[in-house]
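Annual report, structural modelling task.

Input specification for the zinc ion complex:
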Amino acid sequence: MSFCRFCGQGLVRTFVDLGMSPLCESFLSADQLNQMEPFYPLHVYVCEHCLLVQTKEYVSPEHIFTEYAYFSSYSDSWLQHARAYTDMIVERFNIGAQNQVVELASNDGYLLQYFIEKGIPVLGIEPAANVAQAAIKKGVPTVVKFFGARTAQELAAARGKADLVLGNNVLAHVPDLNDFVAGMKILLKPSGVITMEFPHLMRLMDENQFDTIYHEHFSYFSFATVEKVFAAHGLTIFDVEELSTHGGSLRIYARHSENAKEPVARRVINLKATEEAAGFTSLKTYLCFARKVEETKQKLLNFLIQAKREGKSIAGYGAPGKGNTLLNYCGIRTDFIDYTVDRNPYKHGKYTPGTHIPICDPNKISETKPDYIFILPWNLKNEIIQQLAYVRDWGAQFVVPIPEVSVL
Ligand SMILES: [Zn+2]
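The model returned the following structure:
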């Protein structure tokens, strides 16, 4: 038996079981293809007591995050998102040269670079040394560390506390959730603001985004649950925005509970009411999800089998982490997809974990002229379809697997 990473109760209820899967960022080199490959359970639970949806800690975070292949700067729309966020937050909270901004899991400096442009002091904290190195090269000061209460104390003592603590797509990746949130409380100035972005569980379930489940992604939050977690650590969420990123995310704004300067916005009350009306405060809503996931797999395989019977060729686009959950769970290998392409040169010449689909330079698409382009990062489908407009010249079509298979 293992226990809820927030409230400590035993985990007994299955949310969805995606079988055995390799770590989604562990891309293979050619000489690894004939070696044994570790697979771990991808079994997700829902805590009966606090309704936090979570995986158990099957793999240690040191193992997962010390060399990470995900560089945020390879996505144009993500960079735009980061720039727009910087403009908004600087204006809303009047952040300037006298303030300190700290980003948790600052990746390759994709976001902090925009604060630096405005002359605002920043510090990035990033556990993956290879990714942090890319940030430092860009001139973004970065500490290679896992964040938690102890790191927060060290940083607060050495460099002072922060006016703005932000983290995009990190809260869900934290195995010791309580220690991480406690760390933010320690690092934040009395009048400071925290913003965090993470995929919204309500959207994951409504739109069937089961492929955003992977080992590195430990927690799946509704607003109600994240509010409980923050409150337990003396932090109040005073505003929230619903974003379209990563298939539907929340951006929460938190402050010390003692700091009543920022009143709780109407948007917080409205979102809680929406979640409650949609059943997200009741266990039985969570127990219906697994069946929906099975049906999505069946429909996708029907399409692929049909396409292959008609003699069509299929190339993948993208090699994101989420692609690997989908490919492994559905059993899609080179029997369906000849190869996939990615803009990140770090991945070229490598193979997708578990399914061993070769990852090539995007030029390969115009060389081989496939009939279908299977878009793995469906959250970027509009950007990708625009970039690949030229494939229409030979009549290729795009396949998007989620929320259910569709051909565009
Ligand atoms: Zn719990």
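DSSP finds 14 helices and 17 strands in the chain.
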